Amino acid sequence: LGVDAQKPFRLWVVDEHRYGLISTLRRCWTLRGVRPPAPYQTKYQWGYVYGGLEVMEGRSEFLYTPTVNLHLSGEFLRQIERSEPDAEHVAVWDGAGFHQKEQLDGLPENIHLVALPPYSPELNPIEQLWDQVAVAYANRVYETLDEIEEDITDALRPFWGSPKPVLSLLGVENYLLVSANAT
Q1: Which of 34, 61, 76, 105 is placed for a possible disulfide with 52 were both Cys, Cβ 3.0 to 4.6 Å?
Q2: Residue 133: how many CB atoms within 10 A of its CB?
Q3: Per the confidence metrics, is the pTM higher than 0.90?
């Protein structure tokens, strides 16, 4: 990867989440024999949120965008780099066509990319975050993307407010506690 061993090292799992005005339907609890209401609308308007979770310290970075493309993916990687410019950042993400596959012009030298195998979302732990985010806006109808972004922001707030939810989601919280006690 070409990582400078003299610098701090940060490992990120990165992906994006699409949301829109088409209602997202999810299962919900109800009394036996009662059919739960599930409001639905068909409006074809989309937004995206890029997300990155740092595995070792529990940091997070998010970026709302109107679309996804190579330029915006690069901008999100630069945002990650700006979070700690003196560190080496390794970003693990899938092989989507709008994700950089290699070091392209304009990307900082301390950003390194690792692509996951095709068709393997189960290997990227950030996918669990997007499942939790979808619950925040499921079974509701929104008039604008701004409204849904408010609910998404509320769902993401614990992840940028404290490292504990990030580390817990990634399943490394207990490992870090055990390794800290072992030294």
Answers
A1: 61
A2: 21
A3: no
